[in-house]
Amino acid sequence: MSVSMLAAMCVTMSSCLKNDSDNYVAPVDPSVEAPALQAFIDSTGYNMVTQSDSLYLYVSNGTNFELKGYKMPYLYYEIVNPGNLTQGSTDTSDAAIGGSVGGNTTIYNTYTDSTLIASVTYKGTLLNGTEFGKSDEPVLFAIPNMIYAWQALVGKVGKGGEIRILTPSLYGYSNSAKTGIPANSPLYFDVKVVGFVKNSYGK
């Protein structure tokens, strides 16, 4: 899927709302936000990169998850710490990963089609530094349910890893306003991965 197709999806979904609201805001192409993204990188001194080739996301086919490639220009990231990217697992207390089922849980080093739930700590800000979300304690997220930027990038690091993510609004919440996040806001995240758990966790 190209960025134009992603934008078209946003426009199609948003156009359904246009007649129902006077507050409609059209989604923004990532190229329009490119100068603001570059200015953020320059001001922070972060060594962030973007990929010209496809990034891969796990997408449900109704039965299981399969990798699909997507062109996502102007999506920047920096791997601060790659973490443990070897195949393997350890047992830990459920509380240590932000779980709620109790007892012990097996955590895995890498993100795969069977370990799509990530235990992370994170901070999210607007480009002006305004914080809209943070957790210093581990929390669990099903990554395929998260914004495109997280789907594409969180799995690039393993257990104990850290990644910085700078995303145009289209791969974030696009033209949908959220608490603390105006519509069409480019976003910055610092994500530290505690580990990954099986898709069947809690079931």
Automatic annotation (TrEMBL):
It catalyses: [protein]-peptidylproline (omega=180) = [protein]-peptidylproline (omega=0). Residues 115-197 form the PPIase FKBP-type domain. GO terms for molecular function: peptidyl-prolyl cis-trans isomerase activity. It is an enzyme of class 5 (isomerase). InterPro entries: PPIase_dom_sf, PPIase_FKBP_dom. The keyword Isomerase applies. Its EC number is 5.2.1.8. Keywords: Isomerase, Rotamase. It comes from the Bacteria. Pfam families: FKBP_C. Belongs to the FKBP-type PPIase family. This is Peptidyl-prolyl cis-trans isomerase. It comes from Arachidicoccus rhizosphaerae.
